Amino acid sequence: MGVEFVQFSLTPILIGVLAAVACALPGNFLILRRQALVGDAISHVVLPGIVVAFLLTGSLAAGPMLLGAGAAALVAVALIEAVRRLGHVEPGAAMGVVFTTLFAAGVLLLERSDTSSVHLDVEHALMGSLESLVWFRATGWGSLLDPAAWASLPHELPRMAAVCAGLAVLMAVFWRWLRITTFDEGFARTMGIPVNAVGLGLVGAAAVAAVAAFDAVGSILVIAMFICPPAAARLMTDRLGAQVAWSVGFAVLSAVGGFVLAGYGPLWLGGQDAVSAAGMIAVTGGVILGLACRFGPARAGSAPRP
Predict the structure, then answer these.
(1) How many CB atoms lie within 10 A of CB 107?
(2) Mean pLDDT across the stretch 289-301?
(3) What gap in Å lies between CA 231 and CA 219, rounded to an integer?
(4) pTM of this prediction?
(5) What are the CA-CA distances from residue 166 to residues 134, 150, 196, 285 (Å)?
(6) Cα gap 1→289, rounded to integer Å
(7) Of 81, 186, 204, 221, whose CA is between 20 and 30 Å from 144?
(8) Which domains does the chain have, with CATH numbers?
(9) 239 pairs with which residues across the strands?
C-alpha cells in the first residue's frame, strides 16, 4: 500500500498543494484590491501564449512558456486599451471581450495544431494532467531519501516548489508595501512607495503562479485557487496575516481533499470510474467557500484590517 501511494498519489498531491498555495498567496491581495478576476483573466491570456510558444519552440520548458505568456499579456493589455479607446466602452467590458477572445483563439490553435507528441490539448488546458504526474521509480517511502530516485520525479514538482517558495519569499520581503498599498493607496503615495510598481509586481506574481500551475492542473483549477481559498479566508478573519494563513490552509485542504474525493468519491457512491482531480479540487474549494459564507465569523462584511 505504501509503495503504491508513493508511486501514484504522493507527487500529484504535492503538486496540487503547491499549485493551490502558489495561486492563493497573491490571490489574497487581489481579493482585497477588488481585482479577483485578474486571476481569471491571466488564466485566459496564458493559453494562447503557451500554445504559440510551443509551436515556435517545440518545447514545454518553463522558459519558453513564461516568455509566451508574458508576450500574450502584453498583447492583451494593448488590445484592451485599443478596444476601450476606439469602442468607447468601459474597461471591464473591454477586458471581458479581449480575454474571452484570446482564450478562444488559444483553444482554436490547440484544435488545429499537431500536439499529439506532448500532453497539450484542449482537455489538458482545461483540466490539466495531475493524475499522470506519477513517480514510477519510487519503491516506497525510502525513495524520499534516495537522490538517484529524485531524478525521475515529475519535473512539475520541483518547478512548482520553486515558484511557491519564491512567491512566499517575495510576499515576506514586500509585505509592508503590499499591506499599505492594498489598504490605503493615498497614504502609500505620500510615503514614497511605488504604488503602480507594486500593483504590476502583484499581477506579475500572479502570472508566474498561473503559468507554472497551468501545465499540471489546467485553467479551471488555477482560476478556482486564485479566488476560493482567499475569499473563504476573508470570511474567517478581518486580520490580513490571519487571512493569508487561513487561505494557505484552505488551499491545502482543497488540494488533498479534492484529490482523494476524485479517486474514491465515485466508488463510495457506487460508481466505477474516478473523475478529474483538478475539477474535484476546484469543486472542493467552492464547497469550502460556501461553508465559509454560511458559517464564517466575518461573513457579516466587516472591513478587513492590516
Answers:
(1) 17
(2) 78
(3) 18
(4) 0.83
(5) 24, 21, 21, 24
(6) 33
(7) 221
(8) 2-295 (1.10.3470.10)
(9) 305
Residue 110: the pLDDT is 74
Terminal CA-to-CA distance of the chain, rounded, Å?
A: 46
- Residue 190 near residue 182 (C-beta atoms within 8 A): no
Cell of 305: 484590517
Asked whether 201 and 2 are in contact (CB, 8 A), the reply is no
- Per-residue CA distances from 160 to 23, 49, 88, 187, 250 (Å): 11, 19, 41, 35, 18
The conformational region for residue 301 under phi > 0 = left, psi -120 to 50 = alpha, else beta, is left
Task: Collapse the DSSP code of 299 into the 3-class scheme (helix H, G, I; strand E, B; otherwise coil) and give the result.
Answer: coil
CA-based torsion, 60, 66, 69, 71: positive or negative: negative
Find the range with the poorest average confidence among 43-47, 183-187, 199-203, 257-261.
Answer: 43-47
Please count the residues of the chain: 306
Q: Are 189 and 137 in contact (CB under 8 A)?
A: no
d(CA 157, CA 134): 10
The per-residue pLDDT of the chain, averaged, comes to 81
CA 259 to chain centre: 16
3-state secondary structure of 117: coil
The C-alpha cell 498543494 sits at: 17
Which one-letter DSSP state was computed for residue 305?
B
Give the Cα separation of 225 and 245 in Å (integer).
Answer: 14
User: Residue 93 is placed in which grid cell?
Assistant: 467590458
Closest CA to 137 of 122, 147, 129: 147
Cell digits for 140?
516506497
Angle between helix 195-234 and 11-32 (nearest 10): 110
